[in-house]
Amino acid sequence: MGAAVVNTRVLGRDGALPQGDAKHDAVEEMFDRLAPRYDRMNRIISLGLDRRWRRHTVNALATAPGARVLDLACGTGDLCRDLATRGCRPVGLDFSAGMLAVAHVDAPLVRADGARLPFASGTLDAVACGFALRNFVDLDAVFAECARVLRPAGRVAALDATVPSNPVMRAGNAVWFRGAVPLLGRVLGHDAEAYRYLPKSTAYLPPAPVLADRLTGAGFRDVRHTTYTGGSVLLLTGSRA
Length: 241
Fold this sequence. Notes:
By secondary structure, the protein is of the alpha/beta class. It has a domain at 43-161 and 205-240: 3-Layer(aba) Sandwich (Rossmann fold). The chain has helices at residues 20-34, 38-45, 50-61, 78-85, 97-102, 139-149, 167-187, 192-200, 208-217; strands spanning 68-72, 89-94, 109-111, 124-130, 150-161, 220-228, 233-240. It has a 7-stranded mixed sheet, with helices on both faces.
């Protein structure tokens, strides 16, 4: 039998977000717990729009058939499946053993940390990442690793939740993600604390222009950021210099 899962609090007793090593451990354990029912709740949270957002992400990579693409923080493998449908050769990577265990994909899967990618330099054509930037402890290290493993001109496309700048959309976003989503998590028995963390975790991400500057600093050019669904979802893209 495997080791018992230790229920590490993902939020402090005062509701504070974890930092550093505490964040790494708490987030890993949280996703291990959520894995069996994660896909179902993800569809509910996104109102089914997550499929559209992933299509935008795959389109932004502009890969040729046969391209070798890393699905960074792949979770249950949704982006791996989308990439394979486009004729790519995806490989999924995640630090959550629970997520990898329930992934239903034909692509190879690797358990590793995004800040220490187990790939040789310049061997990948593209990197896709779905709703994980805010879960990394050292985002600059992750961007640097993406640059290292990509060939010159290789593409990166990272999708994540964000807070709308429009006051009306921001209010609606707060009602849904900070009010309704934690309630649904509790009512459906999907770990209420985790679904309080997920909306709050957007606070980890700096504003989109700052994210773009940090991606540029890691060795990318033509860096752009686009938002969807009233500014509640961000897509960050760039090409390896």
